[in-house]
Amino acid sequence: MNISFISVVVLLAIAPPSAKPQTTKSASTSNVVVDNVPTVSAPAVVPTDTVRFDGDVVVRVSIRSAQDLMLVNQLSDDMWSHHVGVGGDADFRMSQADLGTLDRAGIPYRVTIADLQNRIDAEQTRLAQPMESLSWFSDFKNLTAVNARLDEMVAAYPNLVSIVNAGTSIQGRVIRGIRISRYPAGTVLPAFIFTGTMHAREWASTMTTMWIADQFVENNTSDARIAAVLNSAEVYIFPVQNPDGYEYTWATGGNRLWRKNRRLISGTTYGVDLNRNWSVGWGGSGSSGTTSSDTYRGTAAFSEPESVGMRDFIAAHTNLVGHIDFHSYSQLWLWPWSYTTTLSPDQTALAAVGYPMQTAIASINGKNYTAGPSGSTYGLTGGCIDDWTYGTQGMMAGTIEVRDTGTYGFVMPTSEIVPNAKENHAAAMAMMEKLLASSPITITLAPGSLVADNTASTVEVQTIPVVSTLITNGVRLKWKLDGGTIQSAVMTSIGSNKYRASLPAIPCGSQLSWFVEAETKFIITHAPLNKPTSFNITATNPCGNPADLDGSGIIDSADLSLMLLEFGRCDVASNCPADLDHSGEVDSGDVSLMLLEI
Ligand code: 0X9
Ligand code: ZN
Fold it and tell me: Is it true that the peptide bond before 77 is cis, omega within 30 degrees of 0?
């Protein structure tokens, strides 16, 4: 990214309020609770009093200077995308009548969408058609249909899928998600979270997250890769993080191009940009303090119930290790930081997962998604969710801007839904698989299933970090004795990525179970299986003959001597090995038993 583009992005954040009025209409602020929702697919009529964009076009403008941006910002209150490239291109919606102003200023531009309102009208007309018989992914779906689909997944796979929620929106809608896991709630496995539709108009992100959910649910055993992930991890999906805004983009009297949430700020001014409302870098560049701005950050970090709800859900699930927040559009894969161009201290680890994700995307349909640290790849955006999930929760995190690169923008044809979803599902798979295998452990020396009584045994492993470096003391041997509490010992490095530690000596008749874990920046991997519930079981030899008091392996006069030393005594009944008949006393009965064995 060139410096001038960064500086104009910074300037955008501090630019004065747009001269153009905000294209919003008031919406109901009544408490609408939509948890148990009926199956409804689409509005039956084409809305008539919806915000319209007649005469508007979308243009890709080459921003050559701060002055260029000031001028474009006066003509447009709706930046559709930032684009990186020579000269720093960006897409704006503006009135066709204002193109002359660009011409007169000599600002290079290209009209990318000349018939915006026509396209929205065509979309509305199409969505009004019955679509019950078509596949769910044949067209975009409103909030009611999304919620109904989540409920259907739970009904069809009750042992795999459950509804989770992340609080309620300003207008009282539940922010719903699903947990996909083969294991009971409370099982501690690595977990991943995929989120969408924080920006209301980015309908492709809704379909992408729903597709990932659908794949994981429908193919949970038939797809070997999905089955393997679900064996080792759990998956959370929140397709719509901004339910009020999303509903508004679908509603009669709404606005197809609405981005923010639906907080009433004052008069006819609505909305906080939920992706500027998180605490890491809050208030920074790329966010606005102007209430009418599309990047209005709110009065404080977490001023909005939608971001609070998501924050509290994520913070409560401390097993989360990976997160992708899906947006549209531009075909970008961006990882932290987004609030600064300074590279994250984990850039190597982020890139070790990030570039394979980019390759995975391209492998599906050949689409190239530009990938890199957000601040330098995209431009500065303070207060985003992924800087928070990475920066405060230690998760591998980032933002994917899905299709396309501007030919359609937010009003994407239905033919793009599935190809787009597939390539982004591939990104999610790559993230999960990379993290789950971030430091595979090979057990090179282990005790067998039977060990000698009261003898320590040695475990050796080899573990090679492939995603990020192992943390200090990150390779650990863990065990429990007879189902007791889990004990832990740091394994000692013995060179060549090998580590060694001892399992304790265990008494006759006890059972020891153990596993090894290796902790890297983002995830702990386990052996024998990549989940903490698997243990290798080591049992002791069966206890010897109780008459063999000295443990020599034969019963002889030495044992008889030991017994006679105890004759007539048995002070502690539970620890009186010579009391062979458990009479509470060492006496002639015990001697008789021993003589039978000699
Ligand atoms: O501005 C945004 O919030 C995202 N772009 S969008 O066009 N969907 O609005 C990009 C955020 C980029 N930064 C992060 N990595 N969070
Ligand atoms: Zn977005």
Answer: no
How far, in Å, CA of 448 to CA of 505, rounded?
14
Cβ neighbors of 188 (< 8 A, separation 6 or more) are: 319, 532
Ligand nearest to the backbone CA of 332: 1
How many angstroms separate the alpha carbon of residue 582 from the centre of ligand 1? 76
pLDDT in tens, 17-61: 333 434 433 333 333 333 333 333 444 444 457 899 999 999 999
CB-CB contact of 202 with 325 (8 Å): no
- Tokens 């999930």 map to which residue? 389
Do 489 and 515 meet the contact criterion of CB atoms below 8 Å apart?
no
**Where are the domains positioned within the chain?**
5-125, 130-436, 441-540, 557-597
The predicted pLDDT at position 82 comes to 64
Which positions ≥6 away from 514 have C-beta within 8 Å? 459, 477, 478, 479, 480, 503, 535, 536, 538
- pLDDT given for residue 450 in this prediction: 75
Q: How many residues does the chain have?
A: 598
Residue in 203, 401, 424 to alter for ligand 1 test, most ligand atoms within 8 A of Cβ: 401
CATH of 441-540, one of 3.30.565.10, 2.60.40.10, 3.20.20.80, 3.40.50.720: 2.60.40.10
Q: Is the pLDDT of residue 4 over 90?
A: no
Threshold 0.85, pTM exceeds? no
Q: Which residues of 460-489 are buried (b: 16+ CB within 10 A; e: fewer)?
A: bbbbebebbebeeebbbbbbebeeeeeeee
| Closest ligand (CA of 276) | 1
Report percent pLDDT > 90 for the chain.
70
Question: Tokens in use for 139?
Answer: 């067209």
- Who's near 457: CB < 8 A, 6+ residues apart? 447, 451, 502, 503, 538
Going by CA atoms, what residue is nearest to atom 2 of ligand 1? 275
Residue 234 — φ and ψ, nearest 5°?
-120, 160
* Contact 410 CB / ligand 1 (< 6 Å): no
**CATH says 5-125 is which class?**
alpha beta
Q: Is 517 a catalytic residue?
A: no
Name the CATH superfamily housing domain 130-436: Zn peptidases (3.40.630.10)
Residue that is written with structure tokens 């509903």 in the block: 247
Distance CA 343, CA 325 (A): 20
CA distances from 362 to 4, 12, 144, 206, 564 (A): 30, 32, 33, 21, 82
Considering 401, 460, 517, 519, which one is annotated as catalytic?
Answer: 401
